[in-house]
Amino acid sequence: MKKQSGLKRTGSMIVFGLISVVIFLWTGYLTTSFLSMVLPSSFWVVPYLGLVVFDGGMVGWMFVYLHLAEGSMQRAIALGLTVFNLIGVGLMTIAEIVLGGQTFAAVPDMLGTVAIWAVGIWTFVNVAGIVAFHLSSPDARIAAAIQEEKDAIVTEALTDLSNRRTDNAKLLAAQLGGGMFKTLVNELGADMDGDGLPDIAERPSKRGKVAAVEALAGGVNGDGPHPTQRPAGR
Predict the structure, then answer these.
(1) For the residues 228-233, what does the mean pLDDT come to?
(2) Are 95 and 111 in contact (CB under 8 A)?
(3) Domain containing residue 159
């Protein structure tokens, strides 16, 4: 009995698998046929790529839901897009059958418009679903939560820095002002020509005169080059 039950189960799985393959081949043909009619000037492989949005997308998101999705958000996205793409398969199938040249039933006025718009809408929603699926992964959510806490700590540190600057402003300003005052005193007392007078107290035309006279005197006394002596090598 168990052996017969196992054989029946195996046979049922084979029959169900064959039926599933035939159905997907049928809906895939109708989808590519409609996409070929909607995109007549496109490359021949483009309608087959459209299967990823409808038939292939439905199967793909179903497997993602069953074997890949982690957490409630990812599972909700995968299940939602499985159902959404199933609706898209139905729309493409109906559009191709009704708009494919049959003469038995009247064509609804808005069916063609809705089906054409659906190609773009289904494409966008599937792309958005892929992005949302990755953003909602547990690893991404954990990394985002940790980064938010780091950002909060940095924000508090910047606030603490501002408070410390306010509390110690007078002390810091006094230290900085003291250094600037020393620089000012040094510049005011600078005596570059060594005449005993600060340069700032002399007229610009008199600055450096004493040093020039001493250099000239040194040349006359033999301590330096004579004004009329020609440089060596000339």
Answers:
(1) 47
(2) yes
(3) 139-167
**Residue 10 one-letter amino acid:** T
**d(C-alpha 231, C-alpha 234), whole Å:** 6
Quick one: 148 and 190 in the same domain? no
The alpha carbon torsion through 161, 163, 165, 166 (nearest 10 deg) reads: 170
Instruction: Please indicate, yes or no, whether residues 188 and 207 belong to a single structural domain of this protein.
Output: yes
3-state secondary structure the chain: CHHHHHHHHHHHHHHHHHHHHHHHHHHHHHHHHHHHHHCCCCCCCHHHHHHHCCHHHHHHHHHHHHHHCCHHHHHHHHHHHHHHHHHHHHHHHHHHHHHCCCCCCCCCCCHHHHHHHHHHHHHHHHHHHHHHHHHCCHHHHHHHHHHHHHHHHHHHHHHHHHHHHHHCHHHHHHHHHHHHHHHHHHHHCCCCCCCCCCHHHCCCCCCCHHHHHHHHHHHHCCCCCCCCCCCCCC
> Are residues 147 and 201 both part of a single domain?
no
pLDDT tens figures, 72-126: 999 999 999 999 999 999 999 999 988 887 777 888 888 888 888 999 999 999 9
Cα(192)–Cα(17) distance, rounded to whole angstroms? 101
**pLDDT tens-digit series, residues 116-148:** 899 999 999 999 999 999 999 999 989 999 999
